[in-house]
Amino acid sequence: xxxxxxxxxxxxxxxxxxxxxxxxxxxxxxxxxxxxxxxxxxxxxxxxxxxxxxxxxxxxxxxxxxxxxxxxxxxxxxxxxxxxxxxxxxxxxxxxxxxxxxxxxxxxxxxxxxxxxxxxxxxxxxxxxxxxxxxxxxxxxx
Length: 142
Prior knowledge:
mainly alpha, 65% helix, 0% strand
């Protein structure tokens, strides 16, 4: 039964596998630029740093809308990739980090406070010739 389905949809499965591999490599190529764009003191503050402009504009609204729609699309794609070929958990995780929701900043601070995560992200920042992230002493985990 499963073999018959695979044989019947071999071309589609090959395309899905190719797109999945391509998305993995594109993600690996662009992630360092996103990590380097974050200010080094971003995680030192107790609240999320506000954007440079407090005024609401149509451009800011459209940017937030686009970012949240992409995040939602990634979450839905990640859920689908849990069953289909692809990096489902990674795609789901990136989607969750993209969308805006209450409590997101404490979650980000908690995640970056793990030494293995902080060391990995700071290694990427060093390669991009950026200062490492600094955390408040209360945020660091051992």
